[in-house]
Design brief:
With 213 residues, the chain is mainly beta. The chain folds into two domains: 1-40 and 57-105, Hexapeptide repeat proteins (UDP N-Acetylglucosamine Acyltransferase, domain 1, 3 Solenoid), CATH 2.160.10; 118-213, 3 Solenoid (UDP N-Acetylglucosamine Acyltransferase, domain 1), CATH 2.160.10.10. It is built from no helices and 29 strands. It has strands at residues 7-8, 13-14, 19-20, 25-26, 31-32, 37-40, 59-60, 65-66, 71-73, 77-78, 83-84, 89-90, 95-96, 101-102, 107-108, 113-114, 119-120, 125-126, 131-132, 137-138, 143-144, 163-164, 169-170, 175-176, 181-182, 187-188, 193-194, 203-205, 210-211. The strands form four sheets. Strands 2-5-8-11-14-17-20-23-26-28-29 form an eleven-stranded mixed beta sheet, with no helix packed on it. It has a nine-stranded parallel beta sheet with strand order 1-4-7-10-13-16-19-22-25, with no helix packed on it. Strand 28 (203-205) and strand 29 (210-211) form a beta hairpin. The radius of gyration is 17 Å and the shape is globular. 40% of the residues are buried.
């Protein structure tokens, strides 16, 4: 199904049962696999405090791919040669950088910035307002968070996503508290619960995570 004013390059590959909402731009050499949904507008819950407003069209830059059953929202941008895996989700106002990969079943929430060459494995949760710099590795099942109050923060208090600096690595199943910064080339061991900033180049592990030296 194609909406109005959709732009699809002549050499783009489209699978079966694809839905492309109005305004979506699909660049040269892109691949959209079976059952993918592109350019969807968010449907917020009755008590949601999020604001959406006007959204720019979804843009898939040349060579990017959205795999089977994935949903990518209006207002997102998928960089050149990036891959959004099967059944993954990328929400509005989020950017997936060039040559990055979003694993199967991973949820990338709104207002997320993902750099170049990032590898996010399957079944992760990337909370709204998270920043992931270039060449970061995020293991399977990692959970980032952005609200210590679990939905009861004051009206004027913004969400605080984690910041993952260039080249850091996050082991499988790790949990990161709101606003945590993991420094450049740092390593968070599998299953760690990160409750405070991790200095560049260090290794942390455990619950709560502590320096492994």
């Amino acid at each position: 199904m194609l909406g109005h004013d959709v732009s699809i390059a002549d050499d783009a590959e489209m699978g079966a049962w694809v839905v492309v909402h109005s305004g979506t731009e699909i660049g040269a050499g892109c691949e959209v696999q079976d059952g993918a949904v592109l350019g969807k507008r968010p449907r917020l819950g009755r008590h949601s405090r999020a604001t959406v407003g006007e959204l720019e069209p979804l843009v898939m830059e040349p060579g990017s791919a959205v795999c089977a059953g994935a949903v990518v929202y209006a207002g997102a941008r998928i960089g050149r040669d990036a891959v959004v895996g099967d059944q993954a989700q990328v929400r509005e106002h989020s950017l997936v950088g060039a040559e990055s990969v979003i694993g199967r079943g991973t949820g990338v929430e709104s207002d997320v910035r993902i750099g170049v060459g990032v590898r996010i494995q399957s079944n992760c949760f990337i909370a709204a307002c998270t920043v992931i710099e270039d060449d970061v590795f995020v293991g399977p099942g990692v959970v980032t968070t952005n609200d210590d109050t679990a939905g009861r923060r004051p009206e004027d208090e913004p969400l605080r996503g984690a910041v993952l600096r260039r080249g850091c690595r996050i082991g499988g199943g790790a949990v990161l508290r709101p606003g945590i910064e993991v420094g450049e080339d740092a390593f968070v061991a599998a299953g760690a619960v990160v409750t405070r900033d991790v200095p560049p180049g260090t290794v942390v592990m455990g619950v709560p995570a502590r320096n492994a030296a």
